[in-house]
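Escalated from tier 1: S-adenosylmethionine holo job.
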Amino acid sequence: MSEQSRRPHKPAKPYRRPQKDPVRILAFEALRAVDERDAYANLVLPPLLRKAREKGDFDTRDAALATELVYGTLRRQGTYDAVIASCVDRPLREVDPPVLDVLSLGVHQLLGTRIPTHAAVSASVELARVVLGDGRAKFVNAVLRKVAQDDLQGWIEKVAPPYDEDPEDHLAVVHSHPRWVVSALWDSLGGGRAGIEDLLAADNERPEVTLVARPGRATTEELLREDAAVPGRWSPYAVRLAEGGEPGAVEAVREGRAGVQDEGSQLVALALANAPLDGPDEKWLDGCAGPGGKAALLGALAAARGAALLASEKQPHRAGLVEKALHGNPGPYQVIAADGTRPPWRPGSFDRVLVDVPCTGLGALRRRPEARWRRRPEDLDNFAPLQRSLLRTALDSVRVGGVVGYATCSPHLAETRAVVSDVLKQRPDTELIDARPLLTGVPDLGEGPDIQLWPHVHGTDAMYLALIRRTA
Ligand SMILES: C[S@@+](CC[C@H](N)C(=O)[O-])C[C@H]1O[C@@H](n2cnc3c(N)ncnc32)[C@H](O)[C@@H]1O
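Tier 2 regenerated the structure:
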């Protein structure tokens, strides 16, 4: 008898096919697309969900779970990476990206949801078996078992440096933001630990869906008849939809009489429209209009005053979106594709001008969970000349006595005050207007004369606005 045949016989485990869980597979596919193709989660997810619903194996709860898994994993990636790094024996950059995505999804289920531990681990291992193979599924199993030994708070205490040693690094790990972003937000916000912690925490909250009732086309009363609709906090045109509210189900939105628009964006358009003006108020310009949210509100406000709006956008396909947003506007308007730094209109043509310039978008991190990982400090240098140039041309485009609004959806000082002060230094023919009194009832707008909104204070994106008058 051979050595082998004398050993007690241990029956091999019968092979079991991995269980395919459509929710986790879809979440994994979305993360891969974000990672591999630099796609945006808010663009990738809807078609994937639609396809899954059409196949018939997805209901509303599945869609909600898949959405939560994708957004939650992307938002918390910084914290989860630190946890995973302490559970694997090689640098994270040496872990294959698809393996890292499965691990991050698993860590989110373990530390960021109420999914029971055994279900979170076994669902992740099954996912790994389907998308990575049995060998790498064992690695996933081993790592997640280590992660499951503590909760989120316990892990943070282990992996984040103490606040007193390095406040920015501590906050970066605890609130899952790149360190340079923590630093930039803190510079702009000022103050002590409490404020920045509140802001970073607010960036990790799911934002409410806010609608705008475009004046002359819809009313807030009409929108408030929707289930789970409540009035906006600051804008007279805003209505908020509670969790689960589906804007596509609202008739006024389907008809373009209302739209989805953050209250911060509504306030920017309103402040420009309300700025005091001597003389005619007939010609308005939106110089960076795509995709058209502010243009649609400005167009409706202009119409109520008998003014006309020119909405200009450099990218032709985005100009098409502006056309769609303005379709049905009650007053005169025109949409053109033009470079705002070399405009086709004559200087001094407009009474009011908005330039909502391209920027890093660091004020809208709630909506674009992947943006904080994709942005680099060098992006600021790329935007800087364009932002200055667009503001200079906007100042040339407005008539003497007219008003320009310079807006960004970033609170980064290099994109806000630095641009305004650099440009105005060379423009003795301009003056800043105090924008704060134009937003009646909105508290804590900063020390002025410009306005900085904040997610943790106002529940809006961190929009910035400076209003500038041409004096000569
Ligand atoms: C922050 S977005 C504007 C958002 C828009 N105001 C809204 O509320 O929907 C900036 C826009 O400026 C456009 N843009 C970039 N460079 C431009 C230029 N040189 N001239 C005009 N538009 C430009 C971008 O394509 C982008 O659509």
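The two ends are 106 Å apart (CA to CA).
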